[in-house]
Amino acid sequence: MNDGDRSDRFETLSVTYGEEPTPGAPMTGDVVSPIHLASTYALPGLDTDMSLEDLDPSAGDFVYSRLSNPTRHAVEQRIAALEDGEYGYAFSSGTAAIFTFVLAVVEPGDHVVAFDDLYAGTRRMFENVFQDRLKLDVDFVDATDTANVADAMTDETTLVWMETPTNPRMNMCDVRAVADVAHEHDARLGVDNTFMSPYFQNPLALGADAVAHSTTKYLNGHSDSVGGALVTDDDGVAEEVEFLQTVGVGDMLSPFDSYLLMRGIKTLPMRMERHEANAMAVAEYLEGHELVDAVHYPGLQSHPQHDLAAEQMSGYGGVLSFELAGGIEDAKRFLEALEEFTLAVSLGGVESLVELPAGMTHEPLAPEEREALGITDTLVRASVGVEHVDDLVADLDRGFDAMVDGAEFETAPAADD
Ligand code: PLP
């Protein structure tokens, strides 16, 4: 949490917060905090208090790097400030951040309500680890309608887990309304805010109890680090997460990745502005194209939840998905012809990426699960980067030309007709 006389403007926090010289360290004048690689730290004496709760990294108390590390601590402080939360934790992946949080707030036999439209890895974690192995009772519901969340709640529900917007259909839930439902049942609400980043959405301010990020995506922003973060204002959650992160699970972001993440965050506001401007232009272009059946982007008036997006987010982000006309072979021809958009999973980096969820990220789901989520064979997800938008549109044209030229094109007239 940012307090004192410091500015709390997002752009300023992104560049400087948490990066003060380490107390007690020699003053070298570095304007960028060093990467602290040491796994252990010299102690002042034998009477040093080593209990976890008494160690204060902000005061320079470092004992062992799994427990706390100055570079990791700095980036944890910064992410907490950007989400305007009290406690921040950095993990070795977004998956680890979500796993540690869930483990921190549930007990055997508890009931969990989760959005049915989650990142496929998170959904598999809930199904295969928490449900099948740890015997939690998990209900997946269409949370675009808060009434479905309310209907699924039971006396045993301790956690509601949402992701908004979702991957890849860009569905949303009303975070404030879902938080009210969760709290009426004394359950906690956790929200995966990866797609919007703290620049465009702050779930804690909307009533969530914890917010998670795959920092691999927008927060780091350069596709060169895998990491995760968790921010909360809840003392009880913080205590459990801290115990699990440092002792129970032992999962934390490495010093080098912490440095990369810190460096990436400095340009988050500028990147997000450009991601959004480019994504909006690409979405509008696709919406007007005859070989596109549907475009899913919260910034478009045609998105069924556009009003909710405008209310709970301050921007619409850089990810969109669209359904191509034709069949899977047409979609493959389209994707393989692209030169600026790289065919790859993941999102949120400065470079534009595309993927085919039915054959890549969501391939592990059963076909009927994909169908229920609206993931058709020609649904393409694009993470729109910060390149010149004219080059991106020209690239998409290249893809459409390849579709039309394709010998097996299934719906549009052949080019020479
Ligand atoms: N949450 C969302 C929305 C994601 O898209 C992803 C990965 O794609 C994750 C969580 C998992 O993050 P990581 O790959 O850093 O473990």
Quick tags:
single chain, 417 residues, alpha/beta, seven-stranded mixed sheet, five-stranded mixed sheet, 14 helices, 14% strand, globular, binds pyridoxal-5'-phosphate
Q: What report would you give on this structure?
A:
- This protein has 14 helices and 12 strands.
- The protein is of the alpha/beta class and 417 residues long.
- A 7-stranded mixed beta sheet has the order 1-7-6-5-4-2-3, with helices on both faces.
- The longest helix is centred in the middle third of the chain and has 20 residues, at 268-287.
- It is globular, with a radius of gyration of 22 Å.
- The protein starts with 9 loop residues before the first helix and ends in a 12-residue tail after the last helix.
- Mean pLDDT is 92; it is low at 412-417.
- It binds pyridoxal-5'-phosphate.
- Pyridoxal-5'-phosphate (PLP) binds at residues 93-95, 119, 121-122, 163, 167, 192, 194-195, 214, 216, 226, 228, 346.
Q: Tell me the helix content.
A: 25-40%
Query: What's the main sheet like?
Result: 7 strands, mixed
SS field, number of helical segments: 14
Name the strands of the widest sheet in spatial order.
1-7-6-5-4-2-3
Q: Strand tally, please?
A: 12
The average pLDDT score comes to 92
Per DSSP, what share of the residues sits in E-state strands of 2 or more residues? 5-15%
List the helices and strands and how they pair.
Elements: H1 10-16, H2 70-82, E1 87-91, H3 94-105, E2 111-115, H4 120-131, E3 137-141, H5 146-152, E4 157-163, H6 175-184, E5 188-192, H7 197-200, E6 210-214, E7 228-232, H8 235-248, H9 255-265, H10 268-287, E8 292-296, H11 306-312, E9 319-324, H12 328-337, E10 342-343, E11 353-355, H13 367-372, E12 379-383, H14 389-405
Parallel strand pairs: 2-3, 2-4, 4-5, 5-6, 10-11
Antiparallel strand pairs: 1-7, 6-7, 8-9, 9-12, 11-12
Pyridoxal-5'-phosphate is lined by residues 93-95, 119, 121-122, 163, 167, 192, 194-195, 214, 216, 226, 228, 346.
